[in-house]
Amino acid sequence: MISKSMSPRVENSSAIRAMFEEGLRMARIVGPENVYDFSLGNPNVPAPPEVNQAIIDVVKTEDPIKLHGYMVNSGFDETRQAVADDLNDRYGTKYGISNIVMSTGAAMCMNIIFRCILDIDDEVIVSAPYFVDYTNYVSNWHGKLEVLPANPEGGFMPRMDELEKRINKKTKAVIINNPNNPTGVIYPESVIKEIAAILEKKQKELGTVIYLIADEPYRELVYDGTQVPHIPDYYDNALVCYSYSKSLSLAGERIGYVVVPDRSDQAEQFKIALGIANRISGAINAPSLIQLALARCLRTKVDIDFYKRNGQDLYEALTDAGFDCLKPQGAFYLWMKSPDADEKAFVEALKEEHILVTPGSAFAGPGYVRFSYCVAHETIERATPGFKRIGQKYFH
Amino acid sequence: MISKSMSPRVENSSAIRAMFEEGLRMARIVGPENVYDFSLGNPNVPAPPEVNQAIIDVVKTEDPIKLHGYMVNSGFDETRQAVADDLNDRYGTKYGISNIVMSTGAAMCMNIIFRCILDIDDEVIVSAPYFVDYTNYVSNWHGKLEVLPANPEGGFMPRMDELEKRINKKTKAVIINNPNNPTGVIYPESVIKEIAAILEKKQKELGTVIYLIADEPYRELVYDGTQVPHIPDYYDNALVCYSYSKSLSLAGERIGYVVVPDRSDQAEQFKIALGIANRISGAINAPSLIQLALARCLRTKVDIDFYKRNGQDLYEALTDAGFDCLKPQGAFYLWMKSPDADEKAFVEALKEEHILVTPGSAFAGPGYVRFSYCVAHETIERATPGFKRIGQKYFH
């Protein structure tokens, strides 16, 4: 029998499947080339050739027992060292092997962190709109996700007054997702400093430890030279979650890491705790072959210009059609105000043009929709007349 | 700050690290070839060459987006079909794609099952001695693991009277680990039938659903023609967890599956629930490249004879030296009665001969020790004089 905790999740999933199936049904009727699906976040730029070459190289040259065998739960030394070196070169940090804990992608990185810091009814704060599965990552460990109201007037930066108000003795962490899914904005240094100041103040006031968890799977997908601040430079109790799902298009391979800075609370024990959490959560370790390959190629990147061009052209097409969009700064998402206060009705209207997007309420951001632009450029071109027709319907 | 739930686990881990470090220290003093380490469960037979060939083939021929991309959380259709076909050929079952949910190894398979069936304070039963991390897999989801006392008189089969007594309204599952870690015994058909009868009876009596979870990572490692019964043939609410960690020596790659038989409770919803649990637990999916490779080679097996010979020779060496051992039937573990009622003192005595084993109390089986014989055969040969000397010390 499915548990009380799981049952509602199974019921909700039927709505998502219905949407997916509607897309398939539409494709059967009008042809897949005439369905413009902006609803999925699956990278559509192939992994760089260096990745596949590295995989073949390690298969051919690595000790066969090591290649597919267990290692310490936190990962191979050489992979962790390569990650640390890369971060050190880019951020001027001094990370070593022990500061890096490899795990099966950013989703698992967050889960093992919550396994380490949450007891029943502890709280974690995030600002709306946010990636929905944070709710699950926190409730898995019987914590509660507290959601700050969205801040459309302030460019969807967290509302600092609300953040400060919401922190209490039970607050164990604040999540920031930078660049942000679903808004595509990047929190600049000034915002990070404000958040850090509030957390410092509240830690002192309450005598507690509040982690700032930076979920950064889109860190390399930034445009126009924008920089994503390295959070541990601004706050001691920072933890960074990273994934190679997007920067190397390895989403299916499940590989990423947590950075545990030496200045963070109980750092030495926390590094051990994360390794244990890797084991007992069932992840055990990041996949061995991909770890070894990554050690040889992790400084390569996918073709970011592909996403950049998509983001620019989608933004232009939508604003030309009269829509009110946030200019994409990073990730591969565009956040657009729905011309209908009920954005679900607007999502339905878009379907008449065979355009599929995700309603903002799926991210606790009603009144908006999310376009995911990891699509063929042609999809944007071919959808543009539809954007115009829908725009005319709403704005003229 | 590390949570109350996690802190004791971090403290306990220092004992394990101390043991590991003592092994390293010993190796530095007497040379690694003179340390006989029977404490680790890392397969030491390489993956069959077909696996690496399949990896290279899929890297060279597969669509690059599919190769490393997301798929449905339950896995690629072709991999699930290959798993189903393999099971059908061997057990005469009629599994299809939907009955197989791929995940990141048996440890994660168990975690996603518990994510689906446990609410706070629900109970899961296992018989001592047992693989210690079951405690964690259950307590992750705030369930309680209830441990039946060991049954040395009955060949370490579960005590049926205790099983029946321990089942109550909160009992959601019984775990059997077959072949068994740490005892190396295989539960025969007669035992499975007895367990099934008790569960059937209690389900009716209590009006509940009690899953029988078969954790079978060692299923292919069986000797002397012994067969591991296919549990769903004996009980409707059976779930099978499998891993390729041992049968293909892919422990580091994290790949395995759950079998959800159509006759099991809420089967259709349960299949969906496991996919959701894969996603929200952070596993997301079993690694994509290895899934695709596995679809091409999953019927190959590692060299089982290597383990068989090790098990036989270790058993002979230890019984010759006077020790009381269970004859290994499967897995790569040998379970031996400690000649000292305090088996930890005996473990220390073995260290004087540079022999490292795991004390039974690490498996809730005090008074015994576990030898893991996934070692070079030479290790057994070279340790034999030490076994004799220790035997003489205790038995003469």
Automatic annotation (TrEMBL), chains A, B:
Domain Aminotransferase class I/classII large stretches: 34-383
Entry's family note: Belongs to the class-I pyridoxal-phosphate-dependent aminotransferase family.
Family annotation (InterPro entries): Aminotransferase_I/II_large, NHTrfase_class1_PyrdxlP-BS, PyrdxlP-dep_Trfase, PyrdxlP-dep_Trfase_major, PyrdxlP-dep_Trfase_small
PROSITE patterns assigned: AA_TRANSFER_CLASS_1
Signal sequence, start to end: none
Pfam families membership: Aminotran_1_2
Official protein name in the record: Aminotransferase
Alphabetical list of NCBIfam families matching this protein: PRK06836.1 (NF005305)
Transmembrane segments: none
EC number(s) per entry: 2.6.1.-
Keywords per UniProt: Aminotransferase, Transferase
Organism: Aminicella lysinilytica
Entry GO MF terms: pyridoxal phosphate binding; transaminase activity
Enzyme class, broadest EC rank: transferase
Cofactor(s) this protein cannot do without: pyridoxal 5'-phosphate
